[in-house]
Design a protein that fits this description.
By secondary structure, the protein is α/β, with parallel strands linked by helices. Helices cover 30% and strands 14% of the residues. It folds into 2 domains: 333 residues, Alkaline Phosphatase, subunit A, CATH 3.40.720; 56 residues, Arylsulfatase, C-terminal domain, CATH 3.30.1120.10. The chain is built from 11 helices and 13 strands. Helix 1 packs antiparallel against helix 2 and helix 7 packs parallel to helix 8. The protein is globular, with a radius of gyration of 23 Å.
């Protein structure tokens, strides 16, 4: 920023001198050349931002977060080269609203998305929209206006697919290029021979799809080298079905959900993360690219909480196992290598203001964003969150099936160390001290009645303010 200010001052001084010695037309031509060079310099100072969003990855799937399924050396290497956060939360314990929170910087229910998007009839049944309104804020659109070239590569699931044929195109959200699955407005024909997650007829098979997304991401960065790029690399692994190879492929609901298959798919996804990072290095972009790694929601199945590292809950639950995710930030020379931040509390709706800060721009003042710019935590500062975090899931009594003890109330709030869950009719309040009880084993609402009452009022007031 300091260099850019110096150049602006130099341009002003030089413009005055040129106007005194050259004819007006020649002076203008010189200034245009200088201005163009200045723009290129400014663009060069903006880092690439690559947002890797794993699908249905649990807190305990990754080795450096305590995972014991298979080694994940390449994801672990990101943490060794960057900063690992242990208190990061998504905006919802299920895919569509979680992704909406990342893209918009707002709680997804503000845009009438609070469950996974499906058929029109299914969306009506739970009282939600068929797709994200293109009038919603989009971090891709904001970064594009700031000079970034943008791409979405991988799973979308914010509209389109099944019988929803009128979802807006990717360009409506600010993306220059896209490669996506069937759950999108413009599915890639190489991976969508049928209107479903996978089929044997796909040109790119299920077990090769993560590699396909990595290749497409590197190709995009290669073609736009010299320009600041924003890339969503959002694979649909490690979401079921887990199809590690052709010989194992078999159709049918409930197929491909074994622990053995999961281990192989997780190992392959880790390998692809390594391929991507090696590709960045080969392109000479490893030091000019911020890499963000996380997941969209908790796992399903969770193998008796093995995949949540003991956290209560899973996908579809507002307990920690459904909303607390691994989160790693790597930017060589900027993010402290090997640092572990166990204090700063971050959430998905913070991404919009944080990405704006990293990209040298600001969110629209009238955006009514729900997040906070805590990007200084990427660079070694330990920060204290100011606003509380809110969640909802399970409106109209729709909920993923959960074993006893994992079925959560449908509203939650976290403020400091306190987390309260409650049903939207005010019943079933549960209060936990997450500093002392990360796994939410002891409901202390009665012991801390004033805290519980205050948070319950906040949570219910927030819920009433939603569409």
């Amino acid at each position: 920023m300091k260099n850019e200010c110096k150049i602006n001052s130099m341009m002003g001084n030089l413009g005055g001198r040129l106007s005194g010695v050259l004819k007006p037309a020649a002076a203008i031509a010189c200034l245009l050349i200088i201005f163009s060079s200045h723009q290129l310099f400014a663009a060069a100072q903006k880092p690439n931002i690559v947002f890797i969003l794993t699908d249905d990855m649990g807190y305990g799937d990754v080795g450096c977060y305590g995972g014991r399924f298979v080694p994940t050396p390449n994801i672990d290497q990101l943490a060794k080269e960057g900063t690992k956060f242990t208190q990061f939360y998504v905006a919802s314990p299920i895919c569509s609203p979680s992704r909406t929170g990342f893209l918009t910087g707002m709680y997804p229910a503000r845009w009438n998305i609070h469950s996974f998007l499906q058929t029109r009839a299914g969306n009506r049944e739970v009282g939600q929209a068929d797709f994200l309104d293109p009038k919603a804020p989009s971090i891709a659109r904001t970064l594009k206006a700031a000079g970034y070239t943008t791409a979405h590569i991988g799973k979308w699931h914010m509209g389109g697919g099944r019988d929803v044929t009128n979802a807006p195109p990717f360009s409506a959200y600010g993306f220059d290029e896209h490669v996506s699955t069937y759950e999108s407005p413009e599915p890639d024909p190489n991976i969508t021979a049928m209107n479903w997650i996978w089929s044997a007829q796909d040109n790119v098979k299920r077990w090769d799809r993560s590699a396909y997304f990595v290749d497409k991401s590197l190709d995009f960065l290669r073609r736009h080298k010299g320009q600041p790029c924003y890339v969503n690399l959002w694979p649909d692994d490690v979401h079921t079905p887990w199809v590690p190879e052709a010989a194992a492929a078999r159709p049918g609901t409930g197929a491909h959900e074994s622990k053995a298959e999961f281990k192989r798919v997780l190992a392959e996804w880790d390998r692809q993360v390594g391929r991507f990072m090696a590709g960045l290095k080969e392109l000479g972009l490893a030091e000019s690219t911020i890499v963000i790694f996380t997941s969209d929601n908790g796992p399903m199945p969770d193998f008796k909480h093995e995949r949540t590292a003991g956290l209560r809950g899973h996908k579809g639950s507002l307990y920690e196992g459904g909303t607390r995710m691994p989160f790693i930030v790597r930017w060589t020379g900027h993010t402290p290598a090997g640092r572990v931040d166990e204090t700063t509390v971050l959430t998905a709706v913070d991404f919009f203001p944080m990405f704006c800060k990293l990209g040298g721009t600001t969110p629209a003042k009238d955006g009514n964003f729900d997040g906070e710019d805590l990007s200084r935590s990427f660079f070694g500062e330990t920060l204290v969150r100011k606003p509380p975090i809110f969640w909802e899931f399970g409106r109209n009594n729709t909920e993923f099936p959960s074993p006893k003890g994992d079925h959560s109330p449908n509203i939650a709030v976290r403020d400091g160390k306190w987390k309260l869950l409650v049903n939207d009719d005010g019943t079933g309040a549960e209060l936990y001290d997450l500093d002392a009880d990360r796994n939410e084993t002891e409901n202390i609402a009665e012991k801390n009645a004033q805290v519980a009452s205050r948070l319950k009022e906040q949570a219910l007031s927030w819920k009433k303010a939603l569409p």
